Amino acid sequence: MAAASTTATPLELRPLGNTGLKLSCVGFGASPLGNVFKVISESDAIATVRRAFTLGINFFDTSPYYGGTLSEKVLGKALKALEVPRTEYIVSTKCGRYKEGFDFSAERVTRSIDESLERLQLDYVDILHCHDIEFGSLDQIVNETIPALIKLKKAGKTRFIGITGLPLGIFSYVLDRVPPGTVDVILSYCHYSINDTTLEDILPYLKTKGVGIISASPLAMGLLTESGPPEWHPAPSELKVACKAAAAYCKDKGKSLPKLAMQYSLSNKSISTVLVGMNSVDQVDENVEAATELATSGMDEKTVAEIQGILEPVKNVSWASGVQQS
Ligand code: NAD
């Protein structure tokens, strides 16, 4: 168990593009609260969120898709249980992706936010993302979904608008077709961690667009952990095998691969927050400690270089996601 304490170095806050929001550099990914990785009891989920907030995490991300709405419900309960003013935490949820499938129509996303707010027990969210847009028509996202979200922003249901997905090309496709300042935030996942740094290539472009950058899945959705990825993980087997070897190498050396992976992702300050999924107080402690240790004594560069060596043959290997755009 990592020994994080509430009196340790405060967690760094970083600005999110032009939003004026300042996000803790470690963000709380709430997909595990929807039992996406393993089953977690409601009381453990609430304790995990409380621990995160106590240690300085102020950003919580969920979606109606995670656990078929379970994540939103549990996160809502856990945030309410904090009994702190609403302005002390930042919440993002998503629209367009559901257990039943994808629907980015204006009608569905407009209904979606009301459903999410009810489950979250909130009056507004800070960010509403279009979830995994590569599975829809990107032209529909530009011409129908985002205009609907602008109306929701005007109605005060969300403060900011975001887009998420895996292939990096989706971001420029949309950002080049909407007026500047329309999309406030992008959320990329599995593209800025020890094994895959391709997000780096588009950081200068994203900066010119003034969007806030959230990088999710620093542990490559479980690949960079000792217990390994869940059954549904879409990575090709050569990537799974190499990450397993890296985890075994770290175990032998008495090093924590998740901690080093967190520190690696946190080192790039163009990224506003590193969104990591957590389902226990211990994971919160270890991930926050990774950030505070990085700030005070830096990263174990030697071991990171050794891990990079093991992962070199699969560097930037990813997987297909989404539908062919016409
Ligand atoms: P991740 O890389 O953060 O890995 C999460 C897994 O690692 C979970 O099994 C978690 O329990 C485990 N873990 C966390 N800290 C650990 C530690 N210190 N030691 C050992 N294991 C640890 O992947 P993720 O959860 O998929 O991504 C983070 C969050 O980002 C999600 O919860 C979600 O909020 C968001 N996200 C969004 C999208 C999208 O919008 N398309 C995609 C992926 C992730």
The end-to-end span amounts to: 50 Å
Rough outline: globular
Strand order of the largest sheet: 3-4-5-8-9-10-11-12
- Which structural category do the helix and sheet elements fall into? alpha/beta
Helix/strand order: EEEHEHEEEHEHEHEHEHHEHH
Q: Please, how many helices?
A: 10
The distinct bound ligands, ions and cofactors come out as: nicotinamide-adenine-dinucleotide
> What count of structural domains?
1
State the main characteristics.
single chain; 326 residues; eight-stranded parallel β-barrel; 10 helices; globular; disordered N terminus; binds nicotinamide-adenine-dinucleotide
Your description of this structure?
By secondary structure, the protein is of the alpha/beta class. It has one domain: NADP-dependent oxidoreductase domain (TIM Barrel, Alpha-Beta Barrel), CATH 3.20.20. The protein contains ten helices and twelve strands. The chain has an eight-stranded parallel β-barrel with strand order 3-4-5-8-9-10-11-12, surrounded by five helices. A two-stranded antiparallel ribbon has the order 1-2. The protein has a two-stranded antiparallel sheet with strand order 6-7. β4, α2 and β5 form a beta-alpha-beta unit. It is globular and about 55 Å long. Residues 1-7 have low confidence and may be disordered. It binds nicotinamide-adenine-dinucleotide. Residues 29-32, 37, 61, 131-132, 164-165, 187, 189, 216-222, 225, 258, 275-279, 283, 286-287 line the site of nicotinamide-adenine-dinucleotide.
